[in-house]
Amino acid sequence: MIFDTDILVWVTRGNPKAAAWLDDAPQKYLSAQSFMELLQGARDLRELKSYKNYLHESGFHLLPITENISHRALVYVEEFSLSHHLGAGDALIAATAVEHNLPLATGNAKLFRAVRDLELRVFKP
């Protein structure tokens, strides 16, 4: 399962339900986009290192942005940015999940519902 950035933010804020959800996942994947978003949200170098250590120790596999993912994300933005407010970052995350045939765990299901090929696992804090 690929985890959206919001799930990781819940974990870093100490949400036990989000942490348990991550712990229960047999395989944890993260798009390069979510990784960048998480690091960008760090308040200082200590927090940035803490995020990186957590992802490594938790066994996350980082999935890079490929040419196919970029193309699929472009199609999603063109198709859903006006109707569903799907931004470039979320389109990259969705495209990564679809390209790898993995479900996306997110608390922001509303943003992703329009993407027909995407299997969602909705997190409710």
How would you characterize the overall build of this protein?
With 125 residues, this protein is of the alpha/beta class. It has a single domain (2-122), classed as 3-Layer(aba) Sandwich (Rossmann fold), CATH 3.40.50.1010. The protein contains seven helices and five strands. The strands form two sheets. A three-stranded parallel beta sheet has the order 1-4-5. Helix 7 (109-112) links the parallel strand 4 (104-106) and strand 5. The two termini are 18 Å apart.
Main sheet attributes: strand count, strand direction, barrel closure: 3 strands, parallel
Order of helices and strands: EHHEHHEHHEHE
Give the CATH level 1 class. Answer: Alpha Beta
CATH superfamily: 5'-nuclease
SS content category: alpha/beta
Count of the domains: 1
The radius of gyration computed from the alpha-carbon positions, rounded to a whole number of angstroms, is 14 Å
Shape: globular
State the helicity in percent bands.
55-70%
Tell me the strand percentage band.
Answer: 5-15%
Summed over residues and divided by their number, the pLDDT gives a mean of: 95
- Terminal CA distance reads 18 Å
What CATH calls the topology is Rossmann fold
Features:
Rossmann fold, three-stranded parallel β-sheet, two-stranded parallel ribbon, 7 helices
Helix-strand layout with pairing:
Elements: E1 2-3, H1 5-12, H2 16-24, E2 28-31, H3 32-40, H4 45-57, E3 60-63, H5 67-84, H6 88-99, E4 104-106, H7 109-112, E5 120-122
Parallel strand pairs: 1-4, 2-3, 4-5
In short:
By secondary structure, the protein is an alpha/beta fold. The strands form 2 sheets. The chain has a 3-stranded parallel β-sheet with strand order 1-4-5. A two-stranded parallel ribbon has the order 2-3.
